Every structure is written in structure tokens, then in C-alpha cells.
Amino acid sequence: MALPVPGSPAASWAVYRQKLITALEGQNPRVLIAFWLFGLINNVLYVIILTSALDLIGPLPKALILLPDILPGFLCKLIAPYFIHHFPYSLRVLICVSLSSTGMLLIAVSPPSHNPVSIAVKLLGIMMASLSSGGGELTFLALTHFYGKGSLAMWSSGTGGAGIVGAGAYALATVTIGMSSRTALLVFATLPAVMFVSFFLILPRDALETSSDLRQRLDSGQDESTEEQEAFLPSHSPSHDDDDEHGISQIDISTALTASASSITPLTSKPLHWTATLHSHLQRARSLFLPYMLPLLLVYISEYTINTALFPVLLFPPHSPRTPFTHLRSHYPTYSTLYQTGVFLSRSSLPFLRIRSLYAPTALQSLNFLVLLLHALYDFLPSFWYVAPIVFWEGLLGGLVYVSTFARIAEEVPRGEREFSLAATSVSDSGGILVSALVSMVLEVAVCEWQVSQGRRWCRMVKPAG
């Protein structure tokens, strides 16, 4: 990947601004707004739950929150792509809104104590929100297939924005304003309504409804006229021109990102038996593993092990020159906000930056994990200000791999397989988070005990907000 030299004409803001204008040129603003809000709301509750982990379960391992926050969504992404196409998008959205709202209310209204009953109720609410987030991600990623260029870019940017909004808003509410965690969670429980408004009122659904009508007629075995089917054929196929001297394809990335509704190509006018369809999907999923799914899986294992096992123990003594904070608990939400800021910036970089190798940033993420783990054990970084940029860099790498993975799928996978491929690959990030949760259950406790044995008792002195 060739990057423009800093300070060169290719690196100027005018060039970047023109690339953004070109990428979004001719797009319906309602589509762009709707997909940005889809990404924002679908992920924001997940981020809020992780950021509030310290306040929800106190001294227990934070992976106890991460595990129910990811496992239902992971199972949904693993299984649902093989049958979810039988359910209309409108029903999927209604289910996601209902599950996420109910789950957040359960978390917020459960007693603030850390007794087993209270924690069980909170975990039930977290699992409902997780199921909604997993179903929402594979739904909206698949939905980008039916809309014009830019929908995937806006979805990715929205998911990155969810990190800043979620982590930043919770830190602002509980650290700066001084709200109780319960009050803050009650306020955030209203956010799923935005997803409802985005789908039913903001998003133009003509393209989706037209495509669904054609699919239903094809599934029922009705023949279509040649003229009608030609209306659903792609008007052109994206070529794979060599990158120009600045690493940007001569064909605009957003043109190749998603197929519009007019790109749906009916492969046959006769329905396939469900076993044949399942076998076809499994074959497609196997071909996605090495180039797309594995690097996404590995980068998420590294970064979420950092977030869950190491953030709670990357502490510095309050009221000292080593940290700007007067309370130990302020470190955790601040790290989350820094990480999510990096994620947002990199997930919003699609119109400007492309990477071909997904494994290089994955290796760098593993290096981040190693450096922060060694610091948690041996305390060699002088202050918070040395940890902060590493956490920010961690977010940049994770977001870059995420958006680049789905951009490459949208570029390289044939149009007829793209909707399934986008949805199926989304299981990789959840799989990585699931593995990291299992590792973190042990690692956080082990690192904390090591720190205490070395005379650094800060991880035992953190007090959650009320």
C-alpha cells in the first residue's frame, strides 16, 4: 500500500475533501443518514454496556460483562445468515428495537447492589441487547447490498461513531456531570427508538421493496420477462485497476462497495431445495475464511483482550504526576473513549485510505497487546500519557481492519454472493471478542494478583460509581 507523503499535494485536505465529495456524489442524503444512524445505534448500547462494566459488577472480572454481551450476538451471526433471508427487513428491525430497549431497561432498573440476583437480572438484559446487536449487524450489513455507493462507508463510520458517543457519553455523564450509573443507563435506554425512526421514516425503501418483490416471485417459480430481469442486472462490473501512485484505485472505492438494487441478478427462476442452498452457503463461508474472516478474528482477539483484561489494571496512583485523575475508576472509561475515538476515525477513513494486506495491522495489534501486558506486569511506562496514545493507536488499527475487510468483500466477491458474504463475515469480530472474553476471565485476575504481590494494590482499590 502506497501512502501519500505528508505535506505533499496528495496529502492535502483539499484532495481528501474532493475524494469525499466524489465518493458520495449522487447519493441520496436520506440513505447516507439512515445507514450512519443504523451503525451508531446498533453498536452504541454495546459500547455503553462495556464502558459501564466497572459500575455494573464492581470488583468481579470485567469479562463477566463481555461474555454475555457478545455470546448471544455471536451465535446469532453464526447461525442466522443461513435462514434470516426468509424474514423481511422490517420485522428484523422491529425485533432488534424491542430486544435492545427491553434489555437496557432491565439493566437500568435492576438494584444497584452486586448481589447474585441483581447481577443475574443485569446479565439477562445484557444478553438481550447482545442478541439485538448481533442480529442488527448482519441485517444492516446485508442491507447495504440493496443501496447505492456509500451505504457501507456510512454504516462503518456510524459503528465507529458509536464508540465515541457510547464511551464518551457515559464518561461525561458519570465522571463529569456526576450522574449515577443507573440514571445514565435509563437515559440511554431510549436510544433504540432512533433505529426505528431511521428505518421506517428516513430510509427510502423503494429499492428494497422492489428487490424483495422480485425475489418472492422468483422463489415462487414465476418466470420473469427478459426485459424485467435485465432491469436487475448490473450495468457494469467493477474492474480491478492497479492502484495509482497514491494508493487510491482509479475506480472510486464507493462505486465498488455495494451493489445497488439494480444489481440483483436472479440466478434462476426456480427455487432451490433448502439443503442445496445451505450447502452453497457453507461453501461460500469456507472460501471467506483465510482472506477475510481470519484477520478480522485475530485483530479482535488482541484488541478486546486489551480492553477487557488490561484496561482495568492499567492504573496509576491518583493525585500524582503520573495521572491527571483524582479517582482510579476514571482510567477505565477514559481508555474506552480514547480507543473508540481511534475506531471512529479509522472506520470513517474509507473514502481516503485503502489497505490490501489485512494481516499487517493484525500483527501490529498483537504488538500493542504485548506492550500493554508487559507494562501492566512491570510498570515501566512513566505515566498515563504514555499509555493513552497506545490505546488510541489500538483503536485505529482495529477500525481499519474492520472497514477494510468489508470493503474488500464488496469489491472482490461476486455480486450474487455479496449479500450473504457481508453477513457471514460479521461473525468473525464477535468470535474474536468471545475468545478474548474467555481469556480475560483468567488474565485480568492473574495480572491484578501479580500487581498486588508487587505492592501495587490499585486494582483492588477501584470504587464503582453509584
From TrEMBL:
Regions of biased composition (Acidic residues) lie at 221-230
Bilayer-crossing regions: 33-57, 64-84, 90-109, 121-146, 152-172, 184-203, 292-316, 384-403
GO cellular component annotations of the record: endomembrane system; vacuolar membrane
Main location (coarse class): membrane
Q: Which Pfam families match?
A: CLN3
Q: Where is this region: Disordered?
A: 214-245
Q: Which domain of life is it from?
A: Eukaryota
Q: Where in the cell is it found?
A: Endomembrane system; Vacuole membrane
Q: Which UniProt keywords apply?
A: Amino-acid transport, Membrane, Transmembrane, Transmembrane helix, Transport, Vacuole
Membrane-topology annotation of the record: Multi-pass membrane protein
InterPro entries linked? Battenin_disease_Cln3, Battenin_disease_Cln3_subgr, MFS_trans_sf
GO biological process assignments: amino acid transport; regulation of intracellular pH
**What family is this protein classified in?**
Belongs to the battenin family.
Protein's name in the database = Protein BTN
The record lists the organism as Eremomyces bilateralis CBS 781.70
